């Protein structure tokens, strides 16, 4: 999330028509097109974050500025030349790094929260102890994972570390409750 990926179509001499067909998971389809005979480009239902990078002397690229979850989906490049037709399909999956918080609850148990990540984060404790795990799914496709370290009643937890693993990065923090 927040990056600006660039998708590339294969370079071809004598392009007659070039189209990017975008089918996001959220919202309707979008089409960016170029016709060589009129040297015209056209946009249909595309947001301003879709930047047309085509010039006849360059590879026909598509840039999505500041990508968000709403731009997840399929991006299809279709190129027509007098000799052949080509197409390439990209599938965009957006990773959202979770927000990490570590605190002691009202009973003195360490709680590790990896909030609003996509996909859900994996949470582990060092040293390994019994823990409970809760997941809350949000409407935007992100998931909050809450792990509570459980100990015997009256046992103080000192120097424990929460480790969070996610495709967008890994984190760890320590706490004493």
Automatic annotation (TrEMBL):
Record InterPro entries: CD200R, Ig-like_dom_sf, Ig-like_fold
GO cellular component: external side of plasma membrane
One example of a Gene Ontology biological process annotation: regulation of neuroinflammatory response
Localization in the cell: Membrane
Listed GO MF terms: signaling receptor activity
Domain of life: Eukaryota
Keyword Nucleus among UniProt keywords: no
Primary location: membrane
Topology with respect to the bilayer: Single-pass membrane protein
Keywords in alphabetical order: Disulfide bond, Glycoprotein, Membrane, Transmembrane, Transmembrane helix
Signal peptide: none
PANTHER family with a match to the protein in the record: CELL SURFACE GLYCOPROTEIN CD200 RECEPTOR 2, CELL SURFACE GLYCOPROTEIN OX2 RECEPTOR PRECURSOR
Name of the protein: MOR1B protein
Organism of origin: Tachuris rubrigastra
